[in-house]
Amino acid sequence: MKRGCKSIILFIAIILSINLVVAVDWYEQESGTEAPLYAVAFANERVAWAVGGYGAGFPSTSVILKSIDGGVIWTPQDSPVSEHLQDVCFVDEDVGWAVGIGVIIYTDDGGDTWVEQSTPYDAIFDDVSCIDRNTAYVFGSVGRPFDTDSNVLKLVEGDWIELSSGVNTEWFSSFFIDENIGYVVGNGGNIVKTTNGVDFEPLDRFERNEIPVALNDIHCLSEDECWMADGNEIVYKTSNGWESWDEIDTGETVSSFGGIHARDSDNVWVVGQSTLRHTNDGGDSWENDDTEITNSLGLLPVAFMRDVEFMGDVGLAVGDDGTILRYGQPTECPIIENPCDDVYAVTYDQVTGCIEAYYCVILPDINRTLQLPVPEPTCQDNYRECVEENYPNHADCDETYEFCNDIDEVLADVQKEYAEKMMSYASEFKYFANLLNGEKINVYLSQEKGEDNIFGVEIGEGSVKVVEPYEKPTIAVYLSENTLNAIIKSDDPKSTALNAIKNGDIKIKGLKGKMFKVLLFKIGLKISLPFLK
Fold first, then answer.
1. Which of helix, strand or coil describes residue 468?
2. In which band, very low, low, confident or very high, does the pLDDT at 513 lie, cut at 50, 70 and 90?
3. How far apart are CA 233 and CA 374, in angstroms?
4. Which is nearest to 76 in space by CA: 88, 87, 65?
5. What is the pLDDT of residue 142?
């Protein structure tokens, strides 16, 4: 994208009072396996895990995958068992558990080694919840013989002990608010709650048309607000601590939902049979998400998506055929060579999760403090500092640091920071998007040196993007880089932009006889701008 494009987008959004929407899709990642993946979990925004494998009808296979770059690159881990794994959880980068058919495995070194832990009985373990390094719960089917409600295992002082859930059923999913408060859901619409981490109290069963439903997954935002996915196309929500709950139809006909995750009370994702859907209004409306593998029917051409999880701005969904989808723009991490022979530290990009740099560490002598070397600023660092201090008048910086590599990328990062800062200022008056939808808009950005930069602007439904300049624009906007900079850096960019229009620092021209009215509700000012030739 040309320099200044992202600032232009923000400028247009501000003066037109458009609610800027950034489209984010799901991108398929290479998993290295075709086996089904049943669960995904984050240790933090960089480190994530996925587990699965082949079960009945296939040669038994156990699959463990790890990512250290926010779900972009996945590396297989050695499993100590052959049974396929149903769920995984981590309390930090090092300590985690995975469970499957009659097995519980554990690592305390970030997956370098996994060990199988002994259990009181063999069972189908469907779910594991980590509380801390010393406390975890495992849920699943009842132990053999299948006539008992002692179907909960809790890790206490390094040993798994039996607890009673009070219900003879198979448990599919659990969610703990803290070390004491947790919910467990399962077959037959059963749900139990614990408030002390030991005793479980059955709650009212979930039924649909007086028929119990299978609750496959649960995700809670608090003790009072939880979301659940059932074995059909319905999700359930409670906002009052289970005094009542809402049955929400997602509008999708599927054989089953497998996973659900609520980022907040409005934004919820659910996955299942050939589908990945979300709501951004608390369940009032739902729509299929776009992915790289979506077919013409709007469905995912995979048999089943099993689980979906978010951590910060990163989302991951896994399913059959080794499918891993990542929420957000695709990221290819650059290959950074490790120059260190022995001990080293690394820094990560907080957005992409990619490794930024390696720092070699010299181990200290006894009684000396370990200190990491402070890296010298690079040529690109100095260029960035110059641009940030003088933006948008960066011509002198370009000349001073023209010998640096990749300064265009550095400048694009600075412009992106400006754009992201201004996104929150875009107003909510969406009707201007309809007013200008279809117009051919060119923006002429005057430079201190050289000719104007010319950008075409395309107005969509709640979005603005830069395109190639139009040969015959219907609307033309003229302003200088200094004016643009004043708008971007202003505490009230909308008012600054409109005052610039009023003072003639921004000129708008269009077809003869056409009128464009901008209503400033917040400051009580009404401006009528005639479009000239």
1. coil
2. very low
3. 55
4. 65
5. 56
CB 290 within 8 A of CB 297: no
Q: 3-state class of 17 per DSSP?
A: coil
The tokens for 240 are 């009052």
Euclidean distance between CA atoms 106 and 342, whole angstroms = 28
Q: With beta carbons less than 8 A apart as the criterion, state whether 494 and 477 touch.
A: no
Q: DSSP secondary-structure letter at 378?
A: P
Give the residue carrying structure tokens 């077959």: 187
Per the structure block, which two tokens stand in for 344?
A: 């080293």
Please, what is the average pLDDT of the chain?
A: 78
| Interatomic CA distance for residues 357 and 339, integer angstroms | 10
Assigned token pair, 350: 């907080």
- Both tokens of 1, joined, read 């994208």
Task: Please tell me the distance from the alpha carbon of residue 251 to that of residue 286, in angstroms, as a whole number.
Answer: 7
Q: Report the b/e string of 19-33 with b at 16+ CB within 10 A.
A: ebbeeeebbebebeb
- Backbone phi, psi, residue 142, to 5°: -70, 155
Share of the chain above pLDDT 90, in %: 33
* Separation CA 420–CA 285 (nearest Å): 27
The two beta strands, 96-100 and 152-156, are: unpaired
* Residue 366, H or E segment: none
pLDDT of residue 9: 52
pLDDT digits (tens, 9 = 90+) for 230-272: 877 789 999 998 888 899 988 876 668 889 999 999 999 999 8
Partners of residue 287 on adjacent β-strands: 278
Cis omega (within 30 of 0) for bond into 145: yes
Tokens 């448990």, located at residue: 171
Contact 255, 213 (CB under 8 A): no
153: enclosing H helix or E strand: strand 152-156
Report the run of H or E that residue 30 belongs to, with start and end.
Answer: none
Task: Report how far apart, in Å, the C-alpha atoms of 474 and of each of 10, 11, 27, 367, 433 are.
Answer: 20, 18, 36, 74, 15
**Do the Cβ atoms of 64 and 51 come closer than 8 Å?**
yes
Q: What is the pTM of this model?
A: 0.60
